[in-house]
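re: ur question from earlier - yeah i can do the single chain one, its not a big deal. heres the input i used so u can compare w yours
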Amino acid sequence: MTTEDAASNISNKRGSSALQMGPRKKASTSDPLVSHGRHFGRTVFALCNYPSLLTNGILRLEQMEDTPLEHFSSEERREHRVFEQLLDSYPGLLERLKNGSEENILHIGELIGKGASGARGDDTKTLKSAVLDWISPKGEAIQPPLHRNSKIDRGFNHELTGSLLCPAGLDWNDSQTKENLRSGELSVCGDQWPIFVYAHQTYDPDDPWCGLLRSRLLVSAYKHVFTSPSSVEKEPKATRSGNARLHGMNSATIASLAYIATQVRFALSSSSVFSRTDTATDSETFYHSLLDLLEDPDESREVDELLMWWNRQVFPTSAAAKRPITANSALSKIRQKRLALKQISNPNVVSS
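and the output i got, formated as tokens:
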């Protein structure tokens, strides 16, 4: 079956954006795509309707024969980038989609979605308890106590979780602000980032990039999910087993940072069920708002520095190759000499 044939089968089924969580469905069979979906959801795109992603993507491939991708909406372009990343990450998937019936395409999407939602559910469950260990004052117990299996007292209801969830730019120590957050009179949208995403819970309105997504709480959660729970309190090692190693992951991704921040935010909240219809946590808006920033080409320099920082925290062996060469070292001298020779033979060569 050609792309055109596959597209004609599903053209009438195309619905809303695939980059939103779809209805919950159970895929009845086990398949390597389920395992792949677990990793893809954590590292490339978490809150996704995979059957729609595949059906929309096949249809768009046909449309792109006549219409360049640049002519599609920004939402469609992002969706297609996710679709292409999925194809690139799973060899043979495109052929399966081209040669499959509409039912097969939907089933493939359900298998990937089963993996992604399963991983998200597992992470939500384990982080609910683990996060309390990371936010406890050193050598002290949380007062008043927070229950590991119940979240009703979390969120703005508790002094500690409330101080971490307070939107950057607001003062949790201001009694009126605290009361308004607790009562709901002051509603918090998903694009109002909580202070815990900043290093040392410190936000500088004049330099909002400073410390963004570099908090120890986020690092602990990232290690918990990707390199194993036991690695949180230890130095990361290349030989350590975990989700990252199982899937050949040796560097942080933009989406993985947004995913972990979303999970931690939910763990600190009083909401009991992770749901796209939960307007209280507004998790989808939060996740998308982080991706909007991190995928913005204008922010590439800051994002590159952020990813390098994360690689040093979690994947030190891969980050070592990216560290600047030490000045006056033998390696730097060799590189300088090689550059000088290149510039003699080609004056257009510039230093990187």
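DSSP finds 15 helices and no strands in the chain. not sure if urs matches, ping me
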